[in-house]
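Lab meeting prep.
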Amino acid sequence: MPPDAPENGSVSNPTHLSLKETFSGAIFETTEAYGEIGFVVDPAKIVEISSYLKHVQGFERLSSVTAVDWWPREPRFEIVYQLHSIRRNLRARLKIRVSAGTAVDSVTVVWRSANWYEREVFDLFGVTFANHPNLERIMMPMDFEGHPLRKDFPIHGYRYSYRDE
């Protein structure tokens, strides 16, 4: 086992302990490995937990938001938030698991940088973010049908013609 790897899933990081104590019913899983702490949290509490991690724990930077499609498993999508505390030199990963068609609360109220990340997840996976200031396609044409990073999207895509061809 690598020297940084956790032993038997033990979690001793103060951020972990504080978050588990503050949001005891909303933390489903915790991990600590290779200098990064991770949480799987209740999707209904994502904004509240994000705000706590930013304002109380000092994770002032949202590095990215992405998604994983676990189709045909349910819940189908895993939304992954990568956080960074510059002052404390720490990284954290938040995950939520949601079914297709379930809206997720936007974290743009906590980190403005979530704006384009959430738009990208919406565009490519079809996950919607409630209370997002401008949830529209960012990579695909506005009239494109479907979401190309879903596992049930056809390998060769749908027959599509661009207007300016």
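Slide two material, second protein:
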Amino acid sequence: MTFELAYKNDLEAVYDVVQRTIKEIYPKYYPKEVVDFFCEHHGRETILKDIEGGDVSVLKIDGQIVATGCFSGNHITRVYVLPKYQKKGYGSFIINTIEGRICEKYDRVCLDASLPAAALYEKLGYRTIKHEKHFLDNGVILAYEIMEKELHKCPTDINYDGRRFVPKMNSDNGEVSGQTCFIYHQNGSLLWAEYSGGEILKGSLVGTVKHNGELDFVYHHMNKCMKIKTGKCHSMPAVLSDGRLELSEKWEWTCDDYSKGESILTEMSL
């Protein structure tokens, strides 16, 4: 799985993701006039303009574009995941990644939330600051929420000792899951952890903590097939609105096919 900038030759694939998602999902929530409005609003010309501005990224699985995310300034403007790939954590991953980019220049992020997406944004810490209406043909009214979230820059004095994390998203080629629990320990810049659960019988990792809280470590575990797997990982922390940490990770197997992947770990409730 990769999340990377979109280029002009990705236009049709991005357009297809957006249009297919709108036409399959939105009729469950909106009348035809609203669905048509969204399809027209996210047309080829608009998407191409955003791509040319460097604002569009795409999520690829096995080289296929299955989702897209777009932002301008501190405004997230277009996040769509093909219906087949929804409810797997990809939408949250895209939002979290975009927030990390926005956080470099802004302390708040905003977006316009459609009915299908509002619940997800609420779970990610967004709050409604305004109710808006857009008047369409035949007297139809499109109601939507303007939502906002305060972004917290990661402090440089994070201590991971005693913190517990569970994955909420992982690439298909990974082995940890929501049933896997990581228990972290720290002594100075030295970091280590044990993990188990799901497909993992027993695993451990060891690495270092940078001054900005980022982690570099190697890991190994025994899975239920009694096979030892090894890898390396770079992890970037973010502070959630409730004070818990979330780790965005890029990892690589150092065995078998040496494939790469990405995951998100969320700290268990304090």
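Talking points for slide two:
Residues 4 and 32 are 33 Å apart (CA to CA).
The chain has a mean pLDDT of 91.
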